[in-house]
Amino acid sequence: MSRDPRPPVDARRAEGAAALDQGLIVAAHGRHAIVETPEGRRLRCHLRGKRSELVVGDRVRWQRSGDEGVVEHIEPRRNLLMRQDAWRSKSFAANLDQLLLLVAVEPVFSESQLARALIAAAAADIGVLIGLNKVDLPAAAEARARLAPYRTMGIEVLEFSAKAQASATRERLLPCLRDRATLLLGPSGAGKSTLINLLLPEARAQVGELSAALASGRHTTTSTTWYWLGSDRRDAVLDSPGFQEFGLQQIEPARLAALMPDLAAELGHCRFANCTHRQEPQCGVQAAVRAGRVSASRWRIYRELHEELSRPRW
Which helix (H) or strand (E) holds 117? Predict the structure, then answer.
């Protein structure tokens, strides 16, 4: 029997994709997206076939079709930040260098939602900065105290007042964004829009242009958008929708403690190898809580999340 001289199917597909134009997804809505070429041109594209949805930050291969384009291939993702509840999943962006997680002095931020976003980032192997906005308000000291456990874990907390101290805020943040693709994520009311407009004065116009190109009037509030900070296109900020819920159904309960740095530091000291760190005797994590190395609030969040993730999934 003669051998098939052609390369394997996957190799042929990769070879075919390499012959197509390269592009970056800078905005997406449903099965349509805006692709940016290496030269900086942008055009509307759609995804061929019934494949997974395009995500902002995806590197793709595409070809022209009339006045638009067709995405034929999505390059392997370096990472993907997502949240998932019992009903659906939401992908924020792919191929990120870091996450700037924004909270504010007012309204008082949910430590549970903060922890969930940090866990999702850790699961995707994405570095994190926490931004504390509105530190000019009287309750700033209380907000700092609530973030103290995160500083102890080694997470950098940047303090600023995007509205009251615009110039100082810009100077504080720009060095942290240099040469990186940074997703700005935060709950509604944290001041994300103010910060985006401060860093990118032309952002509002870009949003309008992208929404028109996608034929989506809802684009500005329902999906992520990629912005370059400078004409050299080296530093990028990605704006994302505000959130009130952050499901973690994509994470197995047994993996949870390892994704929380303060708890992870105490692993390996439990009597039982399959310890859940909730009620077992001689648990290293519980001993760390009693000793003050893990805060009571963080352990409470862990137990609540472990119970949530352990429920049967239908």
Answer: helix 111-123
- Which amino acid is present at 301? I
Cα 104 to Cα 192: distance, rounded to the nearest angstrom: 10
CATH topology of domain 80-239: Rossmann fold (3.40.50)
Tokens coding 197: 């407009």
pLDDT tier at 88, thresholds 50, 70, 90:
confident
Helix (H) or strand (E) holding 237: strand 236-239
**Segments making up each domain of the chain, as ranges:** 9-74, 80-239, 253-310
pTM of the model as a whole: 0.87
Burial class (CB within 10 angstroms; exposed 0-12, middle 13-18, buried 19+) of 56: buried
192 touches 239 (CB < 8 A): yes
State the average pLDDT over residues 147-170: 96
**Nearest C-alpha neighbor of 211 from the set 239, 244, 246:** 239
Identity of the residue numbered 115: A
Can you read off the two tokens belonging to residue 86?
């019992």
Q: What are phi and psi of 219, to 5 degrees?
A: -55, -35
Q: Write down the CATH number for the domain with range 253-310.
A: 1.10.40.50
Q: pLDDT for 169-221, tens place per residue?
A: 999 999 999 999 999 999 888 999 889 989 987 655 455 555 556 654 444 44
